[in-house]
Design a protein that fits this description.
Helix content is 57%, strand content 11%. It is built from eleven helices and five strands. The longest helix is centred in the middle third of the chain and has 24 residues.
Amino acid sequence: MVESPETAGHALVREHTVYECVMGSRAFGLATEDSDTDRRGVFVAPTPLFWRFDKPPTHVDGPEAEQFSWELERFCELALRANPNVLECLHSPLVTRLDATGRELLALRSAFLSRRAHQSFAGYAISQRKKLDADLRTHGAPRWKHAMHLLRLLTSARDLLRTGTLTVDVGEEREPLLAVRRGELPWAAVASWMARLHEEADAAAVRTPLPPEPDRARVEDFLIRVRRASAA
């Protein structure tokens, strides 16, 4: 009996995950009693699977609820582009699964960070802001949870550009952000807060300690070593 693509993908996640963490509100320090546990991971498809016409998946949903995993190469590609979701996954304070390859991946965190983060985080923030504005026009109010997470993202981007370090947990910003989620602040105040964070991020980008580009060669060397070890 031939396995379905979904079944094969789930087997890759179960058997070949090298790194898994918890993301979402629990990683951000914004969890409430009804928060889900969002799991994100990285798996390494065995090298011989790439020799066939049908390649292994670049990502897999599941097998558990709220679980999503990337194949290592796809994960590295996205991280080199400074994809916010992927970079934050690399810096989660809640690691739930880790092997030797996963530890090497985490040791490469600095190689993925660059000034590209300014545009990638800003672009993602703009897309989210458009959704909030659409809610305002349609329903007269934004989705406050989404507004909270946009503020968190903007704060994270500003601090990354200022310090060169990506911090996922919001720390002392927890209570002000949860107040936004509860709708306790007027939209005008929240919009002003967002605008200030955008300006602060732009200013930080001018003198950021981040390098202009990520260390692609270092990441590629790691990927090649992993593929060779798997093939052997």
